[in-house]
Amino acid sequence: MPNLQEVVSDIADEMKARADRGEVATYIPELARVDPAAFGIAVIAADGTVAAAGDSDVPFSIQSISKVFTLTLALGKSGDRVWRRVGREPSGSPFNSIVQLERERGIPRNPFINAGAIAITDLILSGHKPREVLGEILRFMQFLAQDPSVAIDEAVAASEARTGFRNAALANYMKSFGVLDNPVEYTLGVYVHHCAIAMSCRQLATAGRFLAHDGRDPSTGHSVVQAERARRINAVMLTCGHYDGSGEFAYRVGLPGKSGVGGGILAIAPGKASVAVWSPGLDRAGNSHLGRVALEALTRRLGWSIFGA
Ligand code: GLN
């Protein structure tokens, strides 16, 4: 077995040197200010060993990676009723597509495309005030990351709130089909704020550990969800976590993963490790370009693909 820290350091060095870095997201103006040269990686193995390199302690905007955790909260609150509101099939469409929503009468294809995540946010908002539910999401992230300093980047949230016309269209469209229960502006307010949570690779990999270990965080023994639920969240991550790049990610990396337009990816090697990478430049599907390249190198060198060595 190769030395984990050596593998991780090698990959970080290779990624720092590469010229093909993708394009930083600009449709949320605040994200356009991030340095495209950044690269971070953190791997937390089953025994708790942490291997990290590059900018692994620099917080970045987790964006859509937050959708894994809001889905977890929604399943905790409503169980399988979640699946009446959103499907669990890959979309084959961009993350902010509106066409599919019309064909499918306002029921989003899965909880990770924007429409689906907005519907999930609406579900966990019901019965609460926006501020309360946002506090609950943030506390959940702090608890999982074992770090009370995890915070929302208010500048990113305000930037997206100012420019999120497409998400407002998706939300209003779903509202017209009766898919959202709360006022659209409340649901969108919570959504942009949970997307604007900032975390480092190390914090994010820590937060993902329960998904790698049958729903339990092995360091604390805390059961976050039942094993069956963790397995199912991983399945949705594998099939839908990278939008219309999900097939390519499964083909190249072979792990359940969730990307965000901040350039982060959380990837889960079941039974083995929780991994977070960050490189802000995106490919055409809006997924981190070098993040995917780094994960491909990692799973190849360690034989971690769920589909075999
Ligand atoms: N907050 C972003 C949006 O709604 C999240 C998108 C993403 O990370 N893919 O556009």
Question: What report would you give on this structure?
Answer:
- A hairpin with a 3-residue loop joins strand 8 (264-269) and strand 9.
- It is globular, with a radius of gyration of 18 Å.
- It has 14 helices and ten strands.
- The protein has two domains: 4-60 and 199-302, DD-peptidase/beta-lactamase superfamily (Beta-lactamase, 3-Layer(aba) Sandwich); 64-197, 3-Layer(aba) Sandwich (Beta-lactamase), CATH 3.40.710.10.
- It is an alpha+beta fold and 309 residues long.
- A five-stranded antiparallel beta sheet has the order 3-2-9-8-7.
- The longest helix is centred in the middle third of the chain and has 16 residues, at 130-145.
**What is the distance, rounded to the nearest whole angstrom, between the alpha carbons of the first and last residues?**
13 Å
Which of globular, elongated, flat, extended, rod-shaped describes the shape?
A: globular
Count of discrete structural domains: 2
In DSSP terms (H or I, runs of 4 or more residues), the helix count works out at 14
Give average pLDDT, whole number: 97
Category from helices, strands and their pairing: alpha+beta
Summarize the structure.
The chain is globular. It contains 14 helices and 10 strands. It has a 5-stranded antiparallel sheet with strand order 3-2-9-8-7. Strands 4-6-5 form a 3-stranded antiparallel sheet. A two-stranded antiparallel ribbon has the order 1-10.
Task: Identify the notable features of this structure and list them briefly.
3-stranded antiparallel beta sheet, Beta-lactamase, 5-stranded antiparallel beta sheet, 10 strands, binds glutamine, 2 domains, alpha+beta, 309 residues, 47% helix
